[in-house]
């Protein structure tokens, strides 16, 4: 399944909510200074601002452009 990938510069990610019964956040890779967040839908502007999310692309983890975009914000 193609998902939306984000880098969280604050180590926060969107919590589950009652309005959206599907699990939105599929996985989170937590590191010391950032987190990589995999979501099933695009983040809302409120989630982007609150969690300091940076969009890295829509696709599979192994896609080159996803890796390049994630690497751009981690270096």
Automatic annotation (TrEMBL):
Upper taxonomic lineage: Bacteria, Bacillati, Bacillota, Bacilli, Lactobacillales
Protein name (Swiss-Prot/TrEMBL): Uncharacterized protein
Superkingdom in the source lineage: Bacteria
């Amino acid at each position: 399944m193609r998902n939306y990938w984000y880098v969280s510069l604050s180590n926060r990610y969107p919590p589950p909510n009652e309005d959206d019964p599907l699990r939105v956040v599929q996985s989170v890779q937590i590191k010391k200074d950032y987190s990589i967040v995999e979501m099933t839908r695009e983040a809302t502007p409120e989630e982007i601002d609150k969690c300091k999310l940076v969009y890295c692309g829509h696709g599979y983890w192994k896609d080159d452009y996803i890796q390049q975009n994630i690497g751009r914000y981690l270096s």
